[in-house]
TrEMBL record:
GO terms for cellular component: cytosol. This is DNA-binding Lrp family transcriptional regulator. The keyword Nuclease does not apply. One of its GO terms (molecular function) is sequence-specific DNA binding. Keywords: DNA-binding, Transcription, Transcription regulation. It comes from Motilibacter rhizosphaerae. The lineage of its organism: Bacteria, Bacillati, Actinomycetota, Actinomycetes, Motilibacterales.
Length: 166
């Protein structure tokens, strides 16, 4: 689990991702070794750089959510099949309508049809439903969560300090 020091380092890197460790340490008023150790530990937590590349920059102008109904006994082969389709960016098990939701990309509507057919051809998938995403209104983000984490920590530290001074 990340602590407030990790959160401060990550937020600082958002504003300047190429910041040298020494500069980062000075800006955050932390020891260089602390920043270095934390960054090394965070390497196992952070998403790979390739996940930062917008699919649009690779020629995938269409994004969609594909909901799939799955034969539960074949879930493992469904997951293997979905992993084999490069345009499936992520897939998650869900409750409610459908069993799996996939975020997919395609070059154009015709290509989206092809991707949908590939998904439908995965052993164990019985039916799919596709919703085209017109525009990202709130792109994937975690900075607000890190900021909220820091605010909570600061409030609880202030409350402990106020409680101890009376």
């Amino acid at each position: 689990m990340l602590d407030d020091t990790d959160a401060r380092i990550l937020l600082a890197l958002d504003s300047d991702p190429r910041s040298p460790v020494v500069e980062l340490a000075a800006r955050l008023r932390l020891a260089r070794k602390t920043v270095q150790t934390r960054l090394a530990r965070l390497e196992g937590v952070l998403r790979p750089h390739t996940e930062r590349v917008p699919p649009r920059e690779l020629g995938y102008a269409v994004a969609a959510l594909v909901t799939a109904e799955v034969a539960q006994a074949e879930l493992a082969s469904v997951v293997r099949g979905l992993r084999a389709i490069p345009e499936v960016l992520e897939a998650a098990a869900t409750t409610g309508e459908g069993d799996i939701v996939c975020r997919v990309v395609a070059a154009d509507p015709e290509d989206l049809y092809r991707v949908g057919q590939q998904i439908l051809a995965c052993p164990g998938i019985q039916r799919t439903s596709t919703v085209v995403l017109l525009r990202d209104l709130v792109p994937y983000r975690t900075a607000p969560l890190l900021q909220q984490h820091l605010r909570r920590h600061e409030r609880s530290a202030a409350a402990r300090q106020a409680g101890g001074s009376t």
